[in-house]
Design brief:
The chain has 308 residues and is of the alpha/beta class. It contains eleven helices and ten strands. The longest helix is centred in the first third of the chain and has 16 residues. The protein binds erythose-4-phosphate. Erythose-4-phosphate (E4P) binds next to α7.
Length: 308
């Protein structure tokens, strides 16, 4: 299997993180290699919490801050990121498992005003889809914690009425399949990306873009590029490994998959393509997934580590 290097990417490249310094460094590495720079950024409550703890650890209450302080820390963090990239920057709602659609909408309407290039991240739950179906008329959305083709079909249907910005551009709609968390429990997460792309390409109108998330390895990146995932969001450690390969690896910086690339991942169970249509009301799709439920709970628990 041959892999070659050049500075054209079949997918947009976002950084996944909570630290603007990483955003600056990733952008610099891309520019140094002759690319125009980062195409965007994703954040989430766990990543913001982790950095907040690092920044505030010397302060009272074990680094904990008030909710208002934590939210303004999140706002200042994405503002710094927005100085580096004008591409879409995802800002997640930070409620717990009981957060209602109404509460998500109210957070979304406030957070979208933080930066000109913000995108609101809602979970692929019933409440998240209800909120997104309304919010997509007013602004861009990224549906996070997606683990199944049925959830992606629901996202497609729920956001069919997405609106346009004042300059006439349709608002972005992303769906984020989390590959690493499926791999972690022995299922081939990249299959979900491949299946959603195949379904959208066969049946869709192109209004939802597939954002490969929960990336853990350079091979995830290579296969996502091979599949031409619309976007890949990459944590800085993996980004660096791809951009600056270890000296003895024999790899070029920013390698791309060869035409005969094969994604071989022994030990992971395949996730089969399911025949389904995209024209049902979103409520008719089975959007439940235990990893979505667990993911919402974990984001909330991590956010709670910073407030108090
Ligand atoms: C995506 O937007 C998420 O922030 C991220 O990719 C989650 O990755 P993890 O499963 O490694 O936490």
């Amino acid at each position: 299997m041959m892999e070659r290097a050049y500075m054209q990417f079949p997918s947009k490249l976002f950084l996944d993180g909570g630290d603007p310094e990483e955003t600056r460094q990733a952008d610099k590495l891309l520019k140094k290699a002759g690319y125009h720079g980062l195409d965007g950024q994703t954040t989430n409550p766990s990543l913001i919490a982790e950095r907040s703890v690092a920044v505030h650890h010397g302060e009272g209450a074990g680094g904990k801050v008030t909710t208002a302080h934590a939210v303004s820390f999140y706002r200042e963090t994405v503002r710094e990121m927005a100085r580096v990239t004008t591409g879409p920057i995802s800002i997640q709602v930070t409620g717990g498992p009981d957060m209602t659609a109404k509460e998500m909408l109210s957070e979304a309407r406030e957070r979208i005003s933080w930066i000109p290039n913000g995108v609101i991240k809602f979970p692929c739950t019933a409440a998240g889809l209800t909120a997104a179906s309304e919010f997509c008329e007013e602004g861009p959305v990224n549906m996070t914690l997606a683990f199944s083709q049925a959830q992606a079909a629901a996202v497609y249907s729920a956001t069919a009425g997405h609106g346009r910005s004042p300059d006439g551009k349709p608002y972005d709609v992303f769906v984020s399949p989390f590959v690493g968390r499926l791999d972690d429990r022995g299922e081939n997460g990249m299959d979900v990306v491949a299946n959603i792309l195949a379904m959208y390409r066969k049946l869709g109108d192109g209004h939802v873009r597939v954002l490969t998330a929960s990336v853990r390895t350079v091979r995830h990146i290579l296969y996502a590029l091979f599949l031409k995932s619309d976007v890949i969001t990459i944590p800085f450690t993996v980004f660096k490994e791809w951009a600056v390969p270890p000296k003895d690896s024999g790899r070029e910086p920013f390698i791309l998959p060869a035409a005969d690339f094969i994604y071989d991942v022994p030990g992971l169970t395949d996730i089969a393509y399911e025949e389904m249509t995209l024209d049902l009301d979103w409520h008719e799709y089975d959007t439940s997934h235990d990893l979505t439920t667990a993911g919402v709970a974990k984001f909330w628990a991590d956010w709670q580590t910073v407030v108090g």
